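Internal tracking record. Fields below are filled automatically when a chain is submitted to the structure queue. Please do not edit lines marked as system-generated. If the sequence contains nonstandard residues, flag them in the REMARKS field before resubmitting.
Queue: standard
Priority: normal
Entity type: single polypeptide chain
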Amino acid sequence: MVATNDSYQTTWDQYWGDITAQTGAALWDVAPDHAAARDLKTVQAHLANDRPLVDLGCGNATQTWFFGQHFDRVVGVDISQVVIDAVAEKSTMANVSFRQLDILDVDACRSLHADIGDAHVYIRGVIHQLNPDHWQQAIAGVQTLIGQTGTALIVELGGKAHRMMAQIQTPPPKLAEVLAHGIRPAALAPGDIQKLFGDNFEILAHGDTAMHTTQPLPDGNLLQIPAEYWAVRQRS
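SYSTEM-GENERATED OUTPUT FOLLOWS
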């Protein structure tokens, strides 16, 4: 997903290398109906289709290819070169491309912006897995990518998720696989997104949602983690 140094990239390269990039293998790799399609419908009024879209932390690209059906140009980016190589090999959509990107690398973000211009950015479950000391730097990278006219669509874990996770004594297998690789979920507190973006950006939409997963529970249902969504744009 994202990194300031080799440690993040090493972690995610090992994770994707261990589980493979097959659809549904990752905890969060649900069908678009439970992620990108739902999220797009929620905030579509704020996303002009003539802008490219960057799927930040694209992983094995399940959501990226969905966006390719709705936007003229889509770029899937991830910190893991392992997963980027895997999805690039099997991509068949001419308007979808992939590149390795560290959202905390300001020069890399500027380079991508120079290539594609202002873009919408879809961020589902990326910020919370960073060290909180890096959240501001990650948001600065997002601000670079959306520029003056793009919109950031963010779906992240909030306080309810933190309380839920704290009650899990024995993590189910797919969550245990994530934790075993040293990936530790955190949670954003109320108001964190507005604080991180600052007064020059406005919250266009915000509400409660759920982050669906591929992890079956004993009752046969799939694990859902409480989350929140935001649509954010620079003030005109």
